[in-house]
Design goal:
Length: about 260
């Protein structure tokens, strides 16, 4: 039985660890050739090697347009023109509004927002030429409501939410579907800064309907759905993978967030 992504070529940014790593493995298991793009060279190479011949690593600073163009050429030469893009790379910089520096604000925007835009700008023309493609932008619940002490991160995710809607309008009629995923707390290096066990983290999630932290597989499988033909009539959607966090119930501050 063919996988859901058989014959597809997927670029996954931030693919060297955490959510991106898991997404690359699930996509490969469903038949896709995967390009793991990240700045973490040793970790990214290890992920690609463990997947096998259907994967490659490419070192990428998502904020550099020339590096995106180089990735597109290398990926096309190896596997063919990509028809799936998962904009997963991201950074968080906890700081109060007053303490946040201009340099840190701009750094977060370059990676989380400009990087995703450059990926869409660079890879969508080949998707349009094929007449098909799927782009999944990993946003955040920070792009759905306010979060204390996360000015830069929230700004980047609110803006990526808007770009995702606009891109869906511009690209959907050309065969390229654009959708956005909004994870809540996820058990990765970014989401579990104290490296506690999942059972120990549950105390931070008692205020939401599903009272635990999410696992990266749960986000990755949502991305798989949106990238596959199962979502062939879905464009411009926003899917929250947050255990019900954004229903508006109280959630305590997570470890590492400024008071």
């Amino acid at each position: 039985m063919a996988g859901k992504l058989e014959g597809r070529i997927a670029v996954i940014t931030g693919g060297a660890r955490g959510q991106g790593d898991v997404t690359a493995r699930i996509f490969a298991a469903e038949g896709a050739k995967v390009v793991i793009a990240d700045m973490l060279e040793a970790e990214g190479q290890a992920v690609a090697q463990s997947i096998g011949e259907g994967a490659m690593f490419h070192k990428l600073d998502v904020s550099e347009e020339g590096q995106w163009e180089a990735l597109a050429k290398v990926a096309t030469d190896r596997f063919g023109a990509p028809d799936i893009l998962v904009n997963n790379a991201g950074v968080v910089h906890p700081a109060s509004l007053a303490d946040l520096t201009k340099e840190d604000f701009e750094r977060v925007l370059r990676i989380n927002l400009i990087g995703a835009w450059l990926g869409m700008k660079t890879l969508s023309p080949a998707m349009i030429a094929k007449g098909k493609g799927a782009i999944v932008n990993i946003c955040s619940t920070s792009g759905l409501w306010g979060m204390n002490g996360l000015t830069a991160y929230s700004a980047s995710k609110w803006a990526l939410r808007g770009i995702s809607k606009t891109a869906a309008m511009e690209l959907g009629h050309q065969g390229v579907r654009v959708n956005a995923v909004f994870p809540g707390g996820i058990n990765t290096v970014m989401g579990n800064v104290t490296n506690e066990k999942s059972s120990e983290l549950a105390k931070y999630y008692v205020g939401q309907p599903i009272q635990r932290i999410g696992e990266p597989e749960e986000v990755a499988r949502t991305s798989l759905f949106l990238a596959s033909d199962d979502a062939s009539y879905i464009c411009g959607a926003e899917i929250s993978v947050d255990g019900g966090m954004t229903l508006g119930v109280y959630t305590p501050f997570l470890p590492g967030a400024p008071a």
